[in-house]
Amino acid sequence: MAKGHVLVLPMPCQGHVIPLMELSHRLADEGFEVTFVNTEVDHALVVAALPPGGAAELRQRGIHLTAIPDGLAEDEDRKDLNSSSTPTRSTCRATLSGSSGRSRPAAGGPRRLGIRVVYFSPASTACIAFMRKIPKLIEDGVLNEKGWPERQETLQLAPGMPPLHTSLLSWNNSGAAEGQHIIFDLVCRNNKFNDDLAEMTVCNSFHEAEPAVFKLFPDLLPIGPLVADRELRRPVGHFLPEDGGCLDWLDAQPDGSVVYVAFGSMAIFDARQFQELAVGLELTGRPFLWVVRPDFTPGLSTAWLDAFRCRVAGRGVIVEWCSQQRVLAHAAVACFVSHCGWNSTLEGVLNGVPFLCWPYFCDQFLDRSYITAVWRTGLAVAAGEEDGVVTRDEVRSKVEQVVGDGEIRERARLLRDTARACVSEGGSSHKNFRKFIDLLSE
């Protein structure tokens, strides 16, 4: 008999689905039944990307996939957070209202019904800290009431925390400026939800990675890094099918030789930036594995890409998607050219891989700050001041610097060992996970 039934509700994007699916596997291991609720669009993507027998495996483990509408028209852009947040929130609120008879649950309501509410954050706890500090930042005149910076300055909430310029706050880097108020409103609503309803805030992080934040907010419970067991190869909710052939190619490469390049599920490059990156990788003379989603660069010349593939044939491999955890665990990988999404950051950390940071939006600039300024396990690319383009020479030069820096490699190795100790029995994250399970079991 199951210990209990857990309803998992991720935000409809890949970076939230993956860690919550990994958490769902951990809950299933503990004997809980899990219902995992995606939007209809994301549900279809997840099911289509599952390996043969994947859906049956999930059901057998007690993880049940289901879907709800997102409130968007079929042709609307679901990668635009500004345009997608409002209808999704309204639709989900209507769904909850239909089941509870209230437009909004009263504080303590779920507990009276025997429901425990836990807020899970897939971002760094530093990101949570900046969100929690919004009222104070407004009071101090750093932000206005709409979340825009009143002063151009670099903030550091506490010693040891990553510095972040006011222009790079996550809610101001999530899409078009005219829709910023939607994201800021969503952040503020999430803060209020957390305060009113959640009994616990669980984080995909580990204490030793962000000690200054946990000193500032001791109520946060880090249980990460959450990664699926690489040996069992459990389904983790990818939106695209994995290309397994790249792992065979990695097996044929020397240890510490391959540049792995991936920008997550949301980043978009224009044709010029794509070409500069491609030629920069070519100029390194190193083998590389590059994940290029079908929608990564709209309008890219097929002829140009075919010519590039011919020039790097045998040395460069381009795939649409892959098992990033297994790639980063491979001995052939020398460095990770990354958008610095928090999931990717933790996966790189857990495998001791140095970073070349290339953030795109949201909290990725904060994660870059951790990598380059706090942990010092990587470097960042520098874009041109006038056109914002990262040149081929910058790519070549920074890759060589990262790969050739023994001190960066050593710091990455030490952080890897710390992360692994945290999730091992007796480690800080392992103990916190037991606290989380105890709460759900009450």
Automatic annotation (TrEMBL):
Name this protein carries in UniProt: Glycosyltransferase
Recorded GO MF terms: quercetin 3-O-glucosyltransferase activity; quercetin 7-O-glucosyltransferase activity
One Pfam family this sequence matches: UDPGT
Domain of life: Eukaryota
Compositional bias per record (Polar residues), positions renumbered to this chain: 82-96
Biased composition range(s): Low complexity: 97-109
Keywords: Transferase
Family indicated by similarity: Belongs to the UDP-glycosyltransferase family.
InterPro entries according to UniProt: UDP_glucos_trans (IPR002213)
Residue segments, region Disordered: 74-109
Organism of provenance: Oryza rufipogon (Brownbeard rice)
